[in-house]
Amino acid sequence: QVRLVESGGGLVQTGGSLRLSCAVSGLAFSTYGMGWFRQAPGKEREFVAAISWSADRTYYADSVKGRFTISRDNAKNTVYLQMNSLKPEDTAVYYCAAVLAGIPDRSHEYDYWGQGTQVTVSS
Question: Is residue 98 within 8 Å of residue 90, measured between CB atoms?
């Protein structure tokens, strides 16, 4: 059974930082690209960042570039999202996802999803 479990969300003030983690089990983690997406109330799910299986490639949405960093530890089957300089518009449920091919920015191309973790940035 494939499981992706996000953690690290919470309430933070504008300008603050959070580090999200996504622990993965039930699949060959080191062969999957990993992505982070987010969904704010009343909005569609949007791409945030992605990292290749070997971590040699990363890809960011323009809205988070320079503020967020995606990384992974294949020994721990975990992907991370370091979020700095947070803004109220970053408030959303954040989801991690796994994809066997590439690091796409379209959610429908991902194979497995976690349940999400809430991030709230207060102004």
Answer: no
Cα(47)–Cα(39) distance, rounded to whole angstroms?
A: 9
4-15 burial, b if ≥16 CB within 10 A, otherwise e?
A: bebebbeebeee
Measure the CA angle with vertex 30, ends 116 and 53; round to 5°.
80
Q: What Å distances lie between residue 78 and 53, 99, 113, 117, CA to CA?
A: 11, 14, 14, 15
Q: Tokens 């497995």 belong to which residue?
A: 112
Question: Is the CB of residue 36 less than 8 Å from the CB of residue 98?
Answer: no
**pLDDT per residue as tens digits for the range 12-69:** 999 999 999 999 999 999 999 999 999 999 999 999 999 999 999 999 999 999 999 9
